[in-house]
Amino acid sequence: MDNSFFLNDMPEKVEEIFNGVWPRALALVAGIVLLICLVIILVAVAVRIVANVMIFNKAGERWWKALIPGYNRYVLANIVYGKKFAWVFVFSLFDSLSPYYTSITAYNMGLAFGRGIIFCLLSVFFPTVTRLILAFGKSEYRNPVWGEK
Asked: What is the mean pLDDT of each run of 10 residues along the chain (149 residues)?
């Protein structure tokens, strides 16, 4: 099918919109929005890393262990579940199991720091906020949920 019929009937005003300043303005706005999103994501990641460092310090682990990807999951499982059950971090490596593992670990982290059931349930739905509360609040690390540290 020949598209020249549709292009020839395009009004001048519409053609001006598509060939004028509007696409550039739209691209500029989209770029600014993407830049703002990138900054928000980087700030959220930095806040999460700082919270993990503080939680690791409260649990008696070295701060740098929170910075190593993969190993920090193992150490967190060691903090929450104990040495005997630290192998459960393997569930976080599988995409299909990771959301369940993350939710259960967030819940149990609240228990390991001596928090109540409501806080633990909130940590399932708002893990970053509750990690900040654990990291910078008065919570003290007590014991792993399932075993010994």
From this structure: 56 63 84 97 94 95 93 92 86 84 91 93 92 93 81
Can you tell me whether residue 146 is helix, strand or coil?
A: coil
Q: Which two tokens stand for residue 50?
A: 């700082």
- Is there a contact between 126 and 59 (Cβ–Cβ < 8 Å)? no
Query: Length of the chain, please?
Result: 149
pLDDT the model gives residue 55: 95
Contact by Cβ (8 Å): 141, 134: no
Terminal-to-terminal C-alpha distance of the chain: 72
Dihedral angle of Cα 99, 101, 103, 109, to the nearest 10 degrees:
-150
Contact at 8 Å (CB) between 49 and 66? yes
CB neighbours of residue 9 within 10 Å: 8
